[in-house]
Design goal:
alpha/beta, Urease, subunit C, domain 1, 5-stranded parallel sheet, 37% helix, binds 3-[(4S)-2,5-dioxoimidazolidin-4-yl]propanoic acid
């Protein structure tokens, strides 16, 4: 009999994240891969034959746990410079908003990003991305938003796409032209919104470099009426939308995003009941960013219990960026999501797998099931709850990306 699968993992426990048992767990399971996709998942005793006859390669997992590859669905990981001086100023009492209004904040990273070459941006993001990949991340979302002119935004998006050419990761890109008002438009915010709608969005759509359009709806950024125009234009151009909403104040951004069928509304510390109801009705995912909540020492937390009651899907992401979340670990976000936001460890793991896939509109990953991409992570843990439990450290023993072993235990 010829082998039917490329590889077969045995001697593993599976956290499939499928409905049913907690974590969708299958003890003493097996998982087969064919042509980069999961071909079979189940209890080892249900295998239709002896492993060595079923697959070209049989891999014994040493009774480790296997999960879907992790998905970081909200990052600003590509940028020039760093902002540790701002961190010092905040510790002396300045607020994030005050620094932004004084010309620091996002705009200072814009200057460094405009000055950086595309190669420099790729190199910096590569350095920051590597620790995520070592932790089992196989898909990452990368936003632009530190260019704020067409050429620099295109440079960022091209650099983001290049990450997937030399690293074992899939990249989804979001155009974030509405992140801040660039210095040359100071006092002329309406003109910048015109530029986004009339020139930048059509060119971005033509370039094919952006998978979605994002914005920052906030008093220090763009108001709901401005975001509505931007979303209407993006939608006309066939681009899905998402929004940084209700991070520092409640402007009704989440409800606006939901009205445009947004993939996600992100942050949400100040989200009210109307926003929750609108997100639930639209199926808009709540992307929770505990790293920024922690780093900015926010006292408000997203309304987790109300989101849960309303049945809103909750994802978790690193938000890796130089201003509000210099985060280099997605696993640490699981811990923070539980301790700061009171998610359960199971919700936290689902938040970086099944729900993060939903936040990116990716139906082909996020759970262990036949037909899904064979993006897998193998862990030196005794229970999946440990992924949210340890603070620091990295129990990731192996990573499979599109069926290929890219990190391996010896
Ligand atoms: N909210 C955030 O937390 C990041 N962007 C946003 O809209 C911060 C980005 C930065 O400060 O550089």
């Amino acid at each position: 009999m010829t082998a039917i699968w490329d590889s077969l993992w045995i001697d593993i426990d599976l956290a499939t994240l499928q409905p049913g048992a907690p974590y969708g767990a299958i003890r003493d399971g097996a998982l087969a891969v064919l042509d980069g996709r999961i071909a079979w998942v189940g209890p080892r005793t249900d295998l239709p034959g002896a492993p060595a006859r079923l697959a070209t390669q049989v891999i014994e997992g040493g009774r480790r746990w296997m999960t879907p590859g992790l998905i970081d669905c909200h990052t600003h990981i590509l940028f020039g410079g760093e902002r540790s001086r701002e961190f010092e100023l905040r510790l002396e009492g300045a607020s994030y908003e005050e620094l932004a209004r004084a010309g620091g904040g996002i705009v200072s990273t814009v200057a460094a990003t405009r000055a950086a070459s595309e190669d420099d941006l790729v190199a910096g993001a590569t350095r920051r991305l590597k620790p995520f990949l070592a932790e089992g991340v196989t898909t990452v979302e990368v936003k632009s938003g530190y260019g704020l002119d067409l050429a620099s935004e295109l440079k960022m998006l091209r650099a983001a796409r290049r990450l997937a050419e030399h690293l074992p990761v899939q990249v989804r890109t979001s155009f974030l032209g509405a992140h801040a008002v660039p210095p040359e438009f100071k006092g002329r915010q309406a003109d910048y919104v015109d530029l986004i709608c009339d020139e930048m969005l059509p060119a971005i759509a033509r370039s094919g470099l952006a998978d979605a359009v994002d914005g920052f709806c906030e008093n220090i950024a763009f108001g709901p009426a401005e975001m509505e125009r931007i979303f209407a234009t993006a939608t006309t151009l066939g681009l899905r939308v998402k929004l940084h909403a209700e991070q520092l104040s409640d402007l009704g951004g989440a409800a606006l995003a939901a009205r445009f069928g947004a993939l996600s509304a992100d942050h949400l510390e100040c989200l009210g009941q109307d926003g929750i109801a609108a997100m639930a009705a639209a199926g808009t995912v709540a992307v929770l960013l505990p790293g920024a909540n922690y780093f900015l020492a926010e006292t408000r937390r997203p309304p987790i219990a109300a989101l849960r009651r309303a049945g809103v899907s909750m994802a978790i992401a690193s938000n890796c960026n130089p201003g509000s979340a210099p985060v280099l670990s997605l696993l640490l976000m699981l811990s923070m999501a539980c301790t700061l936001f009171r998610l359960t460890p199971e919700e936290a793991l689902a938040g970086v797998t099944r729900e993060a896939a939903r936040a990116l509109g990716l139906a082909d990953r996020g759970i262990l099931a036949p037909g899904r991409r064979a993006d897998l992570a193998l862990w030196d843990i005794e229970s999946p709850g440990e992924l949210a439990y340890w603070i620091g450290g990295n129990p990731c023993a192996a990573v499979v990306h599109g069926g290929k072993l890219v990190k391996s235990f010896s």
